[in-house]
Amino acid sequence: MILLGILSKREIARARLRARTAMTVQAREQGRYLGGRPPYGYRLADAGPHPNRAWARRGARAQRLEADPTTAPVVSWMFAQRQSGKSVARIARSLNDAAVPCPSAADPDRNPHRTGTRWTLTAVRAILANPRYTGRQVWNRQRTDQELIDPANTTLGHRDIARWNPPQDWIISRQQAHPALVSEADFVAVQGTRATTTAPRRTYLLAGLLRCGVCGRRMDSCWSHGRAAYRCRHGHTSATGPGAGPSRNTYVREDRILARLPALLLRLTEGDEPTDPEAAAARLRAENVTLTYDPADSSLTAGTPRRERIRIG
User: Fold this and answer.
1) Domains plus CATH for the chain?
2) pLDDT average, residue stretch 140-162
3) Model confidence over 34-49: pLDDT tens digits?
4) Per DSSP, what are the bridge partners of residue 43?
């Protein structure tokens, strides 16, 4: 019985290897569509009788991808925006502001596991990184791993976990298999694109030191009107448009804080006061002192036992 079990496992492994080899040839050499949800921007079209004669006799039909007249222009626009230097967050915000349906909303029947109604940074990144938009068929981008539900209790069995394979394991067709929504040159260029900026190197003296007095989160560094500043979106993703949350964004310019830092440090050090605002910021950083900004009264509170507080405006 043990020998039969071993042979059975070997046969299963061989069958899987043969199937994988066949699918690799079908994808790479033939550019055949191998199933799954069509990418956003495409829809399925009939490609004639199935190449497997047994399946064809049962009425099975082959399928191919064709450009979707509604969503394909959106994909082309996204690549053009990214190539021009627009950030992923800005592209997502623009799509949401224009009320463009996100992938799960545009094709809900094939995305029952997704309930999103807005574009997210993850969705935009996934589209911009998908080589199928160059017209080539791609297979083996994902795999399914089986893991124990509870390693401490093997009787509960296994569960399937979908994971991304590294790009070197992807199988890409040698020839174009469906209409391209972006040229190969533009696709490659987009992969190395970063948001453009003409500003000089930006320095944030208080980066990591400021916390929001509304929600307690660490404030983000930002550049506004040629000056360093800090803001907090209270937990909303940067794909969310302004005014979508219960509270207005917290915002404060760095120069307003720096002007009052020596006075605050005077209270903390009881007389040992750096007169240079930059030196004061460096002193706070060296001693790991955080500052909480309260937009209600434009005040700063030091994260020390005495909770020294000072108004900046």
Assistant:
1) 33-143+160-191 (3.90.1750.20), 210-311 (no CATH)
2) 76
3) 667 888 999 988 877 7
4) 66
